[in-house]
From TrEMBL:
Domain of life according to the entry: Bacteria
Chain ranges of the Response regulatory domain: 3-117
Protein name in UniProt: Two-component system chemotaxis response regulator CheY
Entry's transmembrane regions: none
């Protein structure tokens, strides 16, 4: 089972995403802050990290994960509320691999992550 971490300050977003992603056979951990997420990544790197762009310290979290040994292998998704090109470019420069538009639902998460769950 592959590890996936959700870093989002919203309890509701984390709970809903965790329920959906657990059904896709991910072992999901949660972090309510960038600091908590970085500590957990240092202890055990996930295969996938989903970072909310609205999280305080989101960009620092991404660069921090990239600085951890093997942090370059983590697939990082940067969540934005709309296709805000400036915010997306900041995420890309920090080291994000891809983007997710919020709000996401079961169909979106399934289409994005089903292949990763199978491939892993």
């Amino acid at each position: 089972m592959q590890r996936l971490m959700i870093a989002d300050s919203s309890d509701i977003v984390r709970t809903v995403a965790k329920r959906i992603l657990t059904e896709l056979n991910f072992m999901v951990s949660e972090a309510a802050s960038a600091g908590e997420a970085l500590q957990r990544c240092k202890a055990e790197l996930p295969l996938v990290l989903v970072v909310d762009a609205g999280l305080d310290g989101a960009l620092e979290l991404i660069t921090g994960v990239r600085a951890i040994p093997n942090g370059d292998k983590v697939r990082i998704y940067y969540c934005v509320i709309e296709a805000d090109l400036r915010k997306m470019m900041q995420g890309k420069r920090a080291g994000a691999d891809d983007f997710l538009l919020k709000p996401f639902d079961r169909k979106i998460l399934s289409s994005v992550f089903a292949n990763l769950a199978i491939a892993a």
